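This is your field. Have a critical look at the following sequence-structure pair:

***
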Amino acid sequence: MVLADDTPELGIGYLGVSLAFGSTVVTRAYEIGHILSYHLNSAVSIGLVAGGRFKVAELPHYIVAQVTGALVYRFVSED
């Protein structure tokens, strides 16, 4: 999908790429979410709160942990 985005004649465009990645995240969350309380990123956590499946009081802790984890990965990884 990412490579197809640069090929306009395929008609996929940015919308197709976003739907492909978005559906992958949703599928993964449904697949193992009930086991691991799968909070991929802050958007998923906020969505769980909006859907009434997660307590609002716990949201700030998850967001801080997600951002901290991303920063640690960014600055510690060897890439």
Remarks:
- Residues 39-79 form one domain.
- The chain has a mean pLDDT of 79.
- The CA atoms of residues 16 and 57 lie 35 Å apart.
